[in-house]
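User: N-formylglutamate amidohydrolase. Structure?
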Amino acid sequence: MSLQINYHIHTIDSPFWSFALHDGHLIDDNLLPYLLLSEKQRLREEDPYTALIAELPVNQFVIGTSRFQLDINRAVEESVYLRPEQAWGLEVWKTNFPQTFLEQLYKKHQYIYRLIEQHIQSSIQKYGFFVVLDIHSYNANRESPTATIDEEANPQINLGTYYNDPKWRELTDSFIHAITSQTLYGLPIDIRENVRFKGGYLTQFLNKRFGDKGCVFSIEFRKDFMNEWTGEPDVKRIAACKQLLINTVQGLKEYFAYEG
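Assistant: Predicted structure:
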């Protein structure tokens, strides 16, 4: 039995990319007999609606398979959650999870990264540079549905830049300014770097190979655009997050004097 990984790539004439690696909720039918989690448990730790936010006027790479099947934003040896400490204390798989399936998933991970590498290399060859917007969301209210969010510890947007080459500092400052010059949900935007997250395997992978040619902005939206306990979306807020990034892409074009 061959396991499937659902993904979608949309390319246009642009050096910019948006990624939504954790939006997916799909689990291959062959794996369902071994899965211990309910759909609700999975949804809690996935990043629903980030694929909608990533629908920007740039190249797009979206993973439709759940991170609980294969986490593309972790190194291959950590990409299948075999231990609770890899998955927020959750037991994901039964103990009889087949080794053949595990090996297939690792190979799928490697295949996806070959695709990513090829596409970014093509962007560099055509434009001389690239920028990736790596879009995620995070839970800031883990105690209970009614608890008050600690906004000091949980910025509205956590921008992961830790692995980027220092040469992109000026670009980073410009990117942050492009965001803070706007509002989100009618309020000033609290965006801070590397407070909750520094960036995952995607940014490490791309910076190791192409860090002198471009960088990755790992954008973690606090889940203010949805109920993080039930998964219920706030459609207007999702649209606001998307519009925020559409406007920010225009700032990237101006920074690089890119006319496309």
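The longest strand covers residues 130-138. Strands lie at 7-10, 16-20, 59-63, 130-138, 157-160, 183-184, 187-188, 191-193, 214-222.
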